[in-house]
Amino acid sequence: MASGDNDLALAAARGDRAAFAALLERHYDRLFRLCFRLTGRRETAEDLTQDICLALPAKLRHFRGEAKLTTWLYRVAVNAAHDHRRRAATHAKSAAGWGHWESNRRAAAEHTAENLDWLQQAMAALPEQLRDTAALVLGDELTHAEAAQVLGISEGTVSWRLSEVRKRLRVMRQEELSS
Amino acid sequence: MTDPLDELKRAINDATPAPDPARRAAILARAQETFERETFERTQGMAAAPRPTRDRPIGWAGLRHGVGRMYAALASRPALAATTGLAALGLVVLVPMIREGTVPGLPPDTPISGAIVSQEKMSIERADADSADSAVAPAAVEPPSRAAPPAAVGVPAPLARIEMLEAEQRARSMQGRAADSAAGVAVLEAGPTGEPVIGYEIGSEPGSETFANADPQPLKIAVEEPVSTFAIDVDTASYAVVRSSLMRGFLPPPEAVRVEEMINYFPYGHPGPAADEAPFRPTVTVTETPWNPDTQLIHIALQGRSPAVKDRPPLNLVFLIDTSGSMDEPNKLPLLIQSFRLMLGQLRPEDQVAIVTYAGSAGLVLAATPAGDRDTILAALHRLDAGGSTAGAEGLQLAYEAAEGMAAEGSVTRVILATDGDFNVGIADPEALEIFIARNRASGIYLSVLGFGRGNLDDATMQALAQHGNGQAAYIDTLSEAQKVLVDQLAGALFPIADDVKIQVEFNPAAVAEYRLIGYETRALRREDFNNDRVDAGEIGAGHSVTAIYEVTPVGSPAVLSDPLRYAERRAPPQGGDGEFAFLRLRYKEPGEDVSRLIELAITPGMGTANADTRFAAAVAGFGQILRGSRYLGNWSYPDAIALAGANTGDDRFGYRREAVTLMQLAESLSD
């Protein structure tokens, strides 16, 4: 129950060990699945989940129970995924200066040749924001309002993004069919 | 053609793997370790100082660990495809970072960190601006910046300083490993974009469960402050909140415990007034203190008259129901509807019911309808549907308007506000809200507040509203609680027999050295307010009983805590009062009257006879004080409370007392 979560979280924030353990136990799987949907890679998802879990004791101290715990936790996860991507992006760019970027690009091109499944392609083709929104709403079955709270945007924007995802998927399917 | 979104949804869910059990266990164990270390450090007072980075869970080590991952991620095509657009922007941030991070000997103060944070914001904004759906980018960027109001003062400074230390360390290490610049740069960039900013954002969220309470009543010295004045309180919300916490396996936060509300939750069998007497009758009992052999408890119980339900005046009830989205949980709106159904069965045909809802818009869902027309009322109740997220407008005004329309000579009119704590009833300013309610109180309309669900329960506002609206605040977490509040005590909850009931006790310094009122922290009145009929106080409903307990230390008792003053004017020890402990004065108004009446009674040692009721009340008082962490109980603890309460459950027709014993046992096992 959502409110039970909040009690647990507040107790953990006050230093209740058992509450913290119970909270993690209860939410680990959910968190991991979300991380997977946000990153699309099992190892990355596991690392990301670990980062979040280890940061949680510090973060929980700032949890005031305003949002539902799951909403709050999702927001933490989405932010962590963003940071992760940003690190990866910077790394990609800095590597470029050393010629790595080009070789990676080539490797990636080869990779494409190996028939990546549709999901990988579809998710990879979506811009980051659309991908996150899709991961939250489609994968975790949040309502638009909940996803909006997690992402810190308006409900209308969530709806708009999803229709945008739909539009792009349609275009992709067209391209697939025509090629 | 199938909806591509459905297809994507299926694909996502099919692709999502189950977590690896070994990895899961390892991560959980490490997280627990981190939790314990951090908790330990915090309680040792180390948290305020900037900590070395290795103490931070996602600190230097975590990031270095992350480098391996970045290499791995680099090889993945999706990562590349997704991020090439952002890569160029990363570099823009990078340059100022190196410069600021490596200024030697620069004190790690906030301006620099502020610069880091703003760099971070810039990078997000620019990244967003460049991404495909730039139309919504500003909205996406807003939260982090908006989420840093000055209110969060306690958080930003230490965070910023830690961040600065990390940046410095990172920069230093980067110098040492210039050759390995690919990794070094990646790490450096990763720093400020990372966790502290998230923590900062979340840290600024204000709490959502707020409880009204004040510091526990302090010990008073009878010579210095012989008079104690307070308003009675018939609320019971605190007990239900405590119960709900314990049932979920957690000790309630101390500030959620209001001892008097716990005591007053239970029905007691004190004798009521005779027909021609005041509407309630005080019973005073002076007994041993369970937790201190050298002090005494003065137990003051007021028992309201309980007229036969058939004699009660007709009721006009306006249900003001919160139907905002947050009410859409099994223990909120559906429980509320069930509760009102129960209550409906107790109404008589000449009573009237109206329903007003507020969420997206306030509306009169059901105009005044005779209670006899059950079907119409039930249909309206069942049409209620939680939805809408915006502030309601005029909910309360509308409810009061409806109530005014129903009010008639000889009937009792009451607005019953049912909410989960979202008091967005159209008046934003709490003071204006109180003034509005107080004004309507003068017009003879009462207000009761029923809280549903936990999570954003605004207990403080609930209590304040009920207090100003001459009403009762109750918290309903189960159908059996609804039964208690709305059915078993329907008469009392819905029609008052005495308004503005105040208690004043004057202690006799010749007999009492020290005294302490247990509970009633939020109900204190100034001494002069006792005789001021314009000062609002609590109401007593039909059949209600209200209990107040003082712990007093007789003169000469070894339990006296304070020494006499050396330099105070030396007076002869106070004499007189014929050994009386205290003098009790009660003021109340008959409903609808403006002038108060007075009841007076001397309290003498050994007065009354202790019975199961007084002992049970003492056990609950002790229990409440344990939960609040009182320091007046010595070694008296849960097992004593359990034994005392368990031995005094009396006839306990509804099982409330046995439930309390169970709660005490739960609290005991949770407190280790």
Provide an overview of this structure.
The complex is a heterodimer of chains A (179) and B (672). With 179 residues, chain A is an all-alpha fold. Chain A has two domains: 1-88, Orthogonal Bundle (Rna Polymerase Sigma Factor, Chain: A); 115-179, Arc Repressor Mutant, subunit A (Orthogonal Bundle). Helix content of chain A is 83%, strand content 0%. Chain A is built from nine helices and no strands. Chain A has helices at 2-13, 17-39, 42-60, 69-96, 100-113, 118-125, 128-139, 144-151, 155-178. In chain A, helix 1 packs across helix 2 (17-39), helix 7 (128-139) packs across helix 9 and helix 8 packs across helix 9. The radius of gyration of chain A is 19 Å and the shape is elongated. Residues 92-106 and 111-116 of chain A have low confidence and may be disordered. Chain B is α+β, with helices and mostly antiparallel strands and 672 residues long. Chain B has three domains: 40-203, no CATH class; 220-308 and 497-556 and 575-670, Gamma-adaptin ear (GAE) domain (Immunoglobulin-like, Sandwich); 318-473, von Willebrand factor, type A domain (Rossmann fold, 3-Layer(aba) Sandwich), CATH 3.40.50.410. In chain B, the strands form three sheets. In chain B, strands 7-6-5-8-9-10 form a six-stranded mixed β-sheet, sandwiched between helices. A five-stranded antiparallel β-sheet of chain B has the order 1-12-14-4-3. In chain B, strands 2, 11, 13, 15 and 16 form a five-stranded antiparallel β-sheet that branches. In chain B, strand 5, helix 12 and strand 6 (352-358) form a beta-alpha-beta unit. The longest helix of chain B is centred in the first third of the chain and has 26 residues, at 77-102. Chain B is globular. Classes of the chains: A mainly alpha (179), B alpha+beta (672). Chains A and B meet through helix 1, helix 2, helix 3, helix 4 and helix 5 of A and helix 1, helix 2, helix 3, helix 4 and helix 5 of B.
